[in-house]
UniProtKB/TrEMBL annotation:
InterPro entries: Cadherin (IPR039808), Cadherin-like_dom (IPR002126), Cadherin-like_sf (IPR015919), Cadherin_CS (IPR020894), Cadherin_Y-type_LIR (IPR000233), Catenin-bd_sf (IPR027397)
Domain Cadherin: 61-141, 142-250, 251-363, 364-468, 468-590
Protein name as annotated: Cadherin domain-containing protein
Any Gene Ontology biological process: cell migration
Lineage of origin: Eukaryota, Metazoa, Chordata, Craniata, Vertebrata
A molecular-function term among this protein's GO annotations: calcium ion binding
Annotated transmembrane regions: 585-614
Functional summary from the UniProt entry: Cadherins are calcium-dependent cell adhesion proteins.
Protein keywords: Calcium, Cell adhesion, Cell junction, Cell membrane, Glycoprotein, Membrane, Metal-binding, Repeat, Signal, Transmembrane, Transmembrane helix
Localization per Swiss-Prot or TrEMBL: Cell junction, Adherens junction; Cell membrane
Cellular component GO terms held in the UniProt record: adherens junction; axon terminus; catenin complex; synaptic cleft
Topological category with respect to the lipid bilayer: Single-pass type I membrane protein
Metal-binding in keyword set: yes
């Protein structure tokens, strides 16, 4: 088709001009139901919503003279769907609803073709159909509903918020999109600018405490607010935010409290509260004691959750000294508004009455520090603790030691005067300090108890002799020189004198003329042992023992004799020890080390054989032999060694049945091991001891052991008791059957066998029945 238009360009230009003239002519004969204009090849058509098609325009060409079969063809946006053309007449109709908000204009092309051959008779002509707006869309608040806030008591004209409405109509054509805003609800509190839609405060002195929230209804109307315009509404919820415009206020200007005198320090004694009509941070207050007698006795703190002032004790109360207090308490806002001239504080008078209480005894000191010499005799007075009843009645006080703090019962206290005495001698080297707790109890009210700590220091006395710091073993070279230092010796002392240790060393009198060794004081509580000659030989003497006496400077002085072992060794020329064993004596004989080891091994083997032989000779008793017969239920265990019975005490060693721990008189419990064990008194083994007395002693110690837990324990006594007065309960030795025996004698054995007798008696009666 393009090639055809190029070949007939002249005729096409003439036809195009005629088609445009047809467009103009067609616009002149548009339907009167809708207005249409053409300007620069443009149709203007109002949007419509009717169900019937509407004529847009008519196309006409000069070629339409009746002789040529022509056809009008429409192409472009909406052709065939929204717009349709009559192929014969050229009339263009809108077939569907036109909405400018969906599409404002359409671009189409019209062309005249041969009806028979579809060959274009004219080039296509482009034209535009523009949809003209009408006021068919109301204003809308897309972001609504709105929420806004403004401080209370704001000035008139204070801006609150701004609302925005949109209109889908054409803002350029007419007044369809020109909006005007107004308030339907919310007056006289608020106003709105009709053009900018800014909401402002319209009433002075709006108080949040009176009303916190307001609902404002805003209307937006198009057509400039004139009659016939469309409108839309939205709501604005305005909340008045709090400002600190109300001071705290006590409900009562005078408040009274009663506090017991035994109230603990730091505990609350009463609460006061000042109410504030504000909220949040503006309602928070702090409380202070600004006046009153002895303000240092009480303090007031603020509860952050309840906003209450809590009175607490800083010092103990004493009804006998002061019975009442008067305080002036102030409540003040934490946040202050400088624009407000009102005072943001309030005061109240608090009167506190002290209530008398039965108080426990009071020690003269919370902690007593006493001293006593170690090894002081029993009943030595260590010191005295004193306590008194602070009440007006003044009850007498009795003193006791908390035995949980004195497990070994090393101290006693006089219940009447509080004198602490020794119950056992003390050893400073075992425990330097003893901390016990003494309780004081009122005689008339035993529930009133107070405690005091008593720290007892054990003073040192010179009761320990000095001794070598370690087990010294010196080595002396055979080729050593006279005056050579063999060993440096120092001593230690368990005592701790105030002036420090000073030790004196000397040889025993028998060794003063010792030709082999001598000692030299080093001046630092140590000595050096020196050799007197260089003729030491292992063949002559391998080992020397040098007794040394060490004396301290205590009062009285204590001394001990310690022996230094000196071994003669073979050394190199440089004095390095090489060998100190007996090899030096054997090698000269001609025996090698391997031969010596073989000889020793043979000797050890012979000793083992001899020991085994002796052991087997002593234990001739054969083991229990179970002879198996065909019927395993009739196996017989034979004892080939006949004993002497219970009276035979020589047949075996009863010590093999003893518990090793029981021999020492102390058998620890098997259920739990206490941190501090109670050491019972020492007693001899069960050989030659009355069993009843032994058991009673153990029961008494177990009942009075404060470290014993209240658990069921098994006490194992590894020895056999005496025979029972009831004889044997076994029926193996009797030829009578159960039915022939009479068990009435069980009732005569005492209350422990009474129940057993009743059971057997019931059995006999059942058989008779």
């Amino acid at each position: 088709q393009i090639k055809d238009r190029q070949s007939h360009s002249k005729s096409l230009q003439t036809g195009s001009t005629a088609l445009l003239r047809g467009l103009v002519e067609g616009q002149r004969i548009l339907s009167r139901a809708k207005r249409g204009w053409v300007w620069n090849q443009m149709f203007v058509l109002e949007e419509f919503s009717g169900p019937d098609p509407i004529l847009v325009g008519r196309l006409h060409t000069d070629l339409d003279v009746g002789s040529t079969p022509i056809k009008y063809v429409l192409a472009g946006e909406g052709a065939g769907t929204i717009f349709a053309i009559n192929e014969i007449t050229g009339d263009i109709h809108a077939m569907k609803r036109l909405d400018r908000e969906e599409k404002a204009e359409y671009t189409l092309t019209a062309q005249v073709t041969n009806r028979d051959t579809d060959q274009p008779l004219e080039p296509p002509s482009e034209f535009i159909i523009k949809v003209q707006d009408i006021n068919d869309n109301p204003p809308q608040f897309v972001e609504g509903p709105y929420r806004a806030s403004v401080p209370e008591t704001s000035q008139v004209g204070t801006s609150v918020t701004r609302v925005t409405a949109t209109d889908a109509d054409d803002p350029v054509y007419g007044n369809s999109a020109k909006l005007v805003y107004s308030i339907l609800e919310g007056q006289p509190y608020f106003s709105i600018d009709p053009n900018t839609a800014i909401i402002k405060i319209a009433l002075h002195g709006m108080d949040r405490e009176m009303r916190e929230e307001y609902l404002v209804v805003i209307q937006a109307k198009d057509m400039g607010g004139h009659m016939g315009g469309l409108s839309g509404t939205t709501t604005v919820t305005v909340t008045l935010t709090d400002v600190n415009d109300n001071p705290p206020k006590f409900s009562k200007s005078k408040q009274n409290f009663v506090i017991p005198e035994d109230l603990a320090i730091g505990q609350p004694g009463g609460k006061v509260k000042a109410n504030d009509r504000d909220i949040g941070e503006n309602a928070k207050s702090t409380y202070n004691i600004i006046d009153g007698d002895e303000r240092d006795v009480f303090e007031i703190t603020t509860d952050a959750q309840t906003q209450e002032g809590i009175l607490r004790l800083k010092k103990p109360l004493n009804f006998e000294t002061k019975k009442s207090y008067t305080l002036k308490v102030e409540a003040a806002n934490i946040r202050f508004d400088p624009n407000s001239g009102a005072p943001f504080k309030d005061t109240a008078t608090v009167k506190i009455a002290v209530e008398d209480s039965d108080e426990p005894p009071v020690f003269s000191k919370p902690t007593f520090v006493l001293q006593v010499d170690e090894n002081a005799p029993i009943n030595t007075v260590v010191g005295t603790v004193t306590a008194r009843d602070p009440d007006v009645t003044g009850s007498l006080v009795r003193y006791f030691i908390d035995r949980h703090t004195d497990l070994e019962r090393q101290f006693n206290v006089n219940v009447d005067d509080g004198k602490i005495t020794l119950a056992k001698p003390l050893d400073r080297e075992t425990d330097m300090w003893h901390n016990i707790t003494v309780t004081a109890t009122e005689i008339r009210n035993h529930s009133q108890i107070s405690r005091a700590t008593v720290a007892i220091r054990v003073l040192d006395i010179n009761d320990n002799a000095p001794e070598f710091a370690t087990e010294y073993e010196a080595f002396l070279c055979e080729n050593g020189k006279p005056g050579q230092v063999i060993q440096t010796v120092s001593a230690v002392d368990k005592d701790d004198p105030i002036q420090g240790h000073y030790f004196e060393y000397r040889l025993i009198p028998e060794m003063l003329n010792n030709p082999n060794f001598t000692i030299k004081n080093n001046g630092d509580n140590s000595i050096s042992v020196l050799a007197k000659h260089d003729t030491f030989r292992r063949q002559k003497q391998e080992m020397y023992f040098l007794p040394i006496i060490v004396t301290d400077n205590g009062n009285p002085p204590m001394s001990s004799t310690n022996t230094l072992t000196i071994r003669v060794c073979g050394c190199s020329r440089e004095g390095i020890v090489q060998s100190c064993n007996v090899e030096a004596y054997v090698l000269p004989i001609g025996l090698s080390m391997g031969a010596l080891i073989a000889i020793l091994a043979c000797i050890i083997l012979l000793l083992v054989i001899v020991v085994l032989f002796v052991t087997l000779r002593r234990h001739k008793n054969k083991p229990l032999i179970i002879k198996d017969d065909e019927d395993v239920r009739e196996n017989i265990i034979r004892y080939d060694d006949e004993g002497g019975g219970e009276e035979d005490t020589e047949a075996f060693d009863i010590a093999t049945l003893q518990n090793p721990d029981g021999i020492n008189g102390y058998l620890p419990r098997k259920d739990i091991k206490p941190d501090l064990q109670f050491m019972p008194r020492q007693s001899s083994g069960p050989n030659g001891v009355d069993v009843d007395e032994f058991i009673n002693v153990r029961l008494h110690e177990a009942d009075n052991d404060p470290t014993a837990p209240p658990y069921d324990s098994i006490q194992i006594y590894g020895y056999e008791g005496r025979g029972s007065i009831a004889g044997s309960l076994s029926s193996l030795e009797t030829a009578s059957s159960d039915s022939d025996q009479n068990y009435d004698y069980l009732r005569e054995w005492g209350p422990r066998f009474r129940r057993l007798g009743e059971l057997y008696s019931v059995g006999e009666s059942d058989k008779e029945t």
